[in-house]
Amino acid sequence: MTAATATTTAPTDRGSVLEGYRDDGQLATAIGRALGRGLRLPAIAPLLVAGLPLLVAIALEGSGASHGLVAAVIAWVVVLGGVASARPLTDRLRWMVPPGLRAIEYSALLWIGAVAGDDVLPATFALLCAITYHHYEAVYGPRHRGVTPPAWVRALAGGWDGRLVLAVVLLAAGALPAAFYVLAGLFAVLFVGETIAEWRRFHAGQQPVYDDEEDEAD
Amino acid sequence: MEIRSGRGVRTRRAAAVAPGSAAVLVATAAAADGSAAALQPWEDTTLLARLAGQFASLGIERVHVITRPGWAEAIGAVAAVQVHAGAAPADDLRAIARVADGGGGALVVAYADVVTQREVLAGLLAEPRLATGVLTTGGTIARPYGFKTRARRGRIVSAGSPYHVVRNPTGTFLGVLKVAPADRPGVGPVAARLAELLEPAPPAEWQEELDYKAGHWRRMLALLSMERERGEPVPPREVLDTAPVAPADAAELERRRAIAPDDVTALLLVGLIRSGMHVGASRLRSLFWARPGGPAALEHAAAEIGEHDEDRELLNSAVKGADGFFTTFFVSTYSKYIARWCARRGLTPNQVTMISIAIGVVAAACFAYAERWSMVAGGVLTYFAFVFDCVDGQLARYSRQFSKLGAWLDSVFDRTKEYVVFAGLAIGASRTGDPVWLLAGAALAMQTTRHAIDFSFPASQHQVIAAAPQPPIEDSFDGPRPASRQTEAVDADEPEGEEAPPPVPVRMTMRRRLGRLWRAGDRNPQIRWLKKIVAFPIGERFAAISISAALFDARTTFIVLLVWGGFAMVYVLVGRTLRSLVS
After folding, report:
1. B343 and B300, same domain (yes or no)
2. Of A182, A188, A172, A160, which is closest to residue A65 (Cα–Cα)?
3. Which of B319, B432, B477, B553 is the most exposed place for a label (fewest CB within 10 A)?
4. Which residues of A touch B537 (CB under 8 A)?
5. What is the average pLDDT value for chain A, to the nearest integer?
6. Rounded to a whole number, what is the distance in angstroms from the first to the last CA of chain B?
7. How many CB atoms sit inside 10 A of residue B306's CB?
8. B260 is in which domain, residue-wise?
């Protein structure tokens, strides 16, 4: 039977688009491999469990939380989020996973900044700007250039998990806000530099992934 | 290429298609007098030569024409085309397969007797976000003979042909198909397989479908010639079957019935869709298209295309269809004239993007200065940064100057502008002794998370569409076969309902009820706009920043953004969760 007669399934390359939005780091995937194997739940379930204590701690303790509490809550987030990373995005609510991870990471970083003190918040804002650029590029790269960011850039960026652990370490070491400014600067150079390099490599044959103007978020 | 004199548009340039691109024009249809429809006269040339010239001006290097032996000589006289003369549609398909296999670049397959504007073809060929795609319309322009299409999230998931039906159509195929270089190798096998199926005769089910279509077209013509009040019930099928049809309509119906089995363009499109190829769509919008079949239709087309103010329609088409309330009523009403002004001054879309980001940065600086006057100035500048943000896209669509880099710059700088303004507001608030960095960070986090929802949800829907199995090409139906087509409705008021088999009754589960309730409001324009406003799109956000910062202060702005954005996020999450569970 030729391709035209068989009941065919379209190429699955577009299927991996959503996975590319996750931004799980080395640590999370290692935890997922170790703990997430037997889980049969959709990925959003462990993610909700991961975020709940974070939400409660922010609501109850706010910027007055102790460093110990911050470390414990972030550890919980990374472990449960790591478990979620083992689950493939195939269930009906799979689209909630990337925004869920964004919400957890951004609110945790803001909380860490607030706990460190009001003078750390501008640095946290700067760091968030660099990280959000990275996350937008994970979408715009495939969409406009037809390529995903290279693995080494994603590894250097640390994933949401790596960045959260680093932020807790920096908080405990008393390195804020300076370390956040440095980190924001390094990330900005890495991410923007990588984008520029990709546009220089770009050739007309590269095919974008989307063709629906309704997909353009506004 | 129509370059208008004087203050006309001068910036339109030949669109870039990949090197080695070819077009196959199918000139097998006969006109009313039995001669080749593609050779009908148009101004001082023919329909075919006009169309071939339009494609050549868009960078198509080689034009092939498929025709019948009797017309080959006359068509060969048309300059710079390669003629393939075959006796039957199967030969035509094999010729298409040979052309597809014989080179790289994009491949266009189109009716040779189409009259349209060059800019319509440019929209299909030059839009970089459209890989493989077809020209379609959501309007009634090709009725009743045009073959239907159904699109989901911009992807054509089902297409009609003389032998194939489309359930719940969303548009009509206008006879121009573009296959991207990457997809071109997929064309040959599909065309060859279709040729096999047509020999010695098409499958019985296909023949039945064509007979049904001819009857359906007749009923549509009868209905359209009746004098009916809008909303008046459609007469039953028996009445329509015997109702009179105007003699001119009857002649055209007979011609269409006769040329339908030769429509390999539509058949190829169905074959490609059924083989799982990703086919997008370029919409005609308000531009001109016709497929005249005789002197009267030609005259009509010539008169109509002359009446069309191409420039004005191109300008109106440049405005994105799915914009929000604020953008539609407070920006797009006049921003398109700025776009035209920019085109006449020779500005590129990327230069306009730069102007927009520059205005955004100045607005942020004003907010950072945090005096009353500078807050007002910042608010006004924020609004104009957004206006120019709309202008760049409209300029690109109007002047057909698309580029992948331009689309990327537009997206990234939209985000940059918004967040630079956040930073400006927060700096200004710190200067006045009321630091709001936490609120600024929260607003940034919330907006990025909302965008992540807007990216992820369609991505998951594309997954579902891509994974849905296509029925084999032998099936005339694109889903379950209806038990009987006798009861099928004919409804001229409902542009998309005409080919739909009766819906299969489904059990009304709670999920379905909720989904139906969710969509029910879309029929009312006020509710539709309200839903858009609630979702807090970019125009509403810039307006909220502009007004609240100009009248109040940074703290108020961030609180407005967080409250409205938070409400929008919950609203969107609930809606999309329901839709995920229903589908």
Report:
1. no
2. A172
3. B432
4. 218
5. 86
6. 46
7. 9
8. 22-307
How near does any CA of chain A get to the CA of B190, in Å? 6
Q: Check if the beta carbon of residue A136 is closer than 8 Å to that of residue B415.
A: yes
Q: Shortest CB distance from B275 goes to which of A4, A124, A208?
A: A4
10 Å Cβ neighbour count for B577? Answer: 16
Q: Residue B179 in contact with residue B187, Cβ under 8 Å?
A: yes
The predicted-structure confidence for B442-459, as pLDDT tens digits, reads as follows: 999 999 999 999 999 988
Of the residues A95, A110, A200, the best mutation for testing chain B's interface (the one with the most B CB atoms within 10 Å of its CB) is: A95
B297 shares a domain with B352: no
- Is B179 found in the same domain as B71? yes
Identify the residue among B124, B129, B425 best suited for mutation to test binding to A, counting A beta carbons within 10 A and taking the highest: B129
Total structural domains within chain A: 1
Residue A122 lies in a domain: yes
CA nearest neighbour of B57 among B103, B2, B5: B2
Distance, CA of B405 to CA of A198 (rounded, Å): 11
For residue A30 the two structure tokens come to 């290692």
* Region label for A208, one of left (φ > 0), alpha (ψ between -120 and 50) or beta (otherwise): beta
Interface contact A210-B320, CB threshold 8 A: no
For A127-151, b where at least 16 C-beta lie within 10 A, e where not — what string?
bbbbbbbbbbbbbbbbbbbbebbee
Q: Are residues B293 and B389 in the same domain?
A: no
Inter-chain touch B320–A213, beta carbons under 8 Å: yes
Which domain, by its residues, includes A111? 24-208
Q: Using 50, 70 and 90 to split pLDDT, how confident is the model at B1?
A: very low
Rounded Cα distance, A199 and A145, in Å = 8
Co-location of B330 and B294 in the same domain: no
Q: State the CATH number of the domain containing residue B43.
A: 3.90.550.10
Contact B580, A95 (CB under 8 A): yes
Q: Report yes or no on B276 lying in a domain.
A: yes
d(CA B478, CA B463): 19
pLDDT (tens digit, 9 = 90+) per residue, B185-240? 999 999 999 999 999 899 999 999 999 999 889 988 888 877 777 677 778 888 88
> How many residues comprise chain A?
218
Based on the fold, state whether residues B269 and B335 are members of the same structural domain: no
The number of CA neighbours under 13 Å toward the Cβ of B152 is 17
Residue pair B421/B375 in contact by the 8 Å Cβ criterion: no
ipTM of this complex prediction, to 2 decimal places: 0.92
Check residue B314 and give its pLDDT.
78
Asked, for residue B316, whether it belongs to a domain, the answer is: no
Q: Is B259 a domain residue?
A: yes
Query: Can you give the pTM of this predicted structure?
Result: 0.84
Q: Which H/E stretch holds residue B219?
A: helix B204-225
- CATH of residue A30's domain is 1.20.120
| Number of structural domains chain B divides into | 2
Q: What is the CA radius of gyration of chain B?
A: 27
Are B277 and B104 within 8 A, CB to CB? no
**Could you say which of B280, B307, B334 is where a domain stops?**
B307
Q: Find chain A residues with C-beta within 8 A of B459's C-beta.
A: 14, 17-18, 21, 95
- Token pair, residue B343, equals 């085109």
Question: Which pLDDT tens digit goes with each residue over B34-91?
Answer: 899 999 999 889 999 999 999 998 889 999 999 999 999 888 887 688 999 999 999 9
Residues A107, B442: Cα–Cα separation, whole Å? 7
A-chain residues near B448 (CB < 8 A): 102, 106, 132, 135-136
Domain termination site, one of B246, B279, B307? B307
Residue A10 has pLDDT above 70, yes or no: no
Q: Are residues B183 and B262 in the same domain?
A: yes
Strand partners, B64: B24, B82
Same domain? B329 vs B303: no
In a domain, A11, yes or no: no
Domain-located, residue A215: no
